[in-house]
Amino acid sequence: MAYKVAAFYQFAALPDFRELREPLRAICAALELKGSVLLANEGINGTIAGGEDAIDDLVRELRDGALFGGRLDNFELKFSTAAAMPFQRLKIRLKKEIVTLGDPAADPTRQVGIYVDPADWNALIAAPDTLVIDTRNAFEVAMGTFAGAVDPGIRSFGQFKDFAAQQLDPAKHRRIAMFCTGGIRCEKASAHLLARGFAEVYHLKGGILRYLEGVPETESRWRGECFVFDDRVALGHGLRERAMEHGSDE
């Protein structure tokens, strides 16, 4: 059977995130889902796989169920498929941040950059005054990236703020466009740059996965594969699985 994979996140105030852990685990276990979900005061971030009906039931629970009480009314959600179950077990984890940057001023619930739909991304990054930055780690960038994008050379996303402090200047870099796998790292990165005084910051809505899903390969500026943090390892255009050897993650 083919498995349905849901990747989702939302920055939202969840002061009761510790109390949400066990009820969410029980819901996912009852649906026989596997994967990983992170819960923090700032929101939720997860990738879960299972049967199609079970995934759809989980999505309805997250959006409309009593557990989150309507607080996840605008979460970013992407579906893909896997020929085999891409996760070994179910993990619901409590974290300080759903994506770790370590900058208290970077709060996507207060301010983020300008979202760019995949259909408009090519025109933005082709503009000569746009600095395009890949916010992912060096291993991910080596597998694939957008033509002409800057590789910050980081081992983990937490190092992005050091790259920005050393290499980026609000007076010089007037228009910045960033991207990542699913969009979540760019929300944090854009909040960080805005807090540092950068005026015009854009990020790819839904990330590389949304771009590969919706932009025809003949029009694509993407080169290579997109690393995903599960047993599928990499996805290509149309979110098709690509068999490759495993590498390190963040």
Automatic annotation (TrEMBL):
- Identify the keywords attached in UniProt to this record, alphabetized: Oxidoreductase, tRNA processing
Pfam families (UniProt xref): Rhodanese (PF00581), UPF0176_N (PF17773)
Domain of life assignment:
Bacteria
Q: What class of enzyme is it?
A: oxidoreductase
List GO molecular-function terms, semicolon-separated: oxidoreductase activity, acting on paired donors, with incorporation or reduction of molecular oxygen
Q: What is its EC number?
A: 1.14.-.-
Q: Where is the Rhodanese domain?
A: 126-220
What InterPro entries does the annotation carry?
Rhodanese-like_dom (IPR001763), Rhodanese-like_dom_sf (IPR036873), TrhO (IPR020936), TRHO_N (IPR040503)
One GO term of the biological process aspect: tRNA modification
- The keyword ATP-binding is annotated on this UniProt entry: no
Reactions catalysed according to its record:
uridine(34) in tRNA + AH2 + O2 = 5-hydroxyuridine(34) in tRNA + A + H2O
Family to which the UniProt record says this protein belongs: Belongs to the TrhO family.
Q: What does this protein do?
A: Catalyzes oxygen-dependent 5-hydroxyuridine (ho5U) modification at position 34 in tRNAs.
PANTHER family attached to this UniProt entry: RHODANESE-LIKE DOMAIN-CONTAINING PROTEIN 7-RELATED, THIOSULFATE SULFURTRANSFERASE/RHODANESE-LIKE DOMAIN-CONTAINING PROTEIN 2
Q: What is this protein called?
A: tRNA uridine(34) hydroxylase
UniProt organism field: Bradyrhizobium sediminis
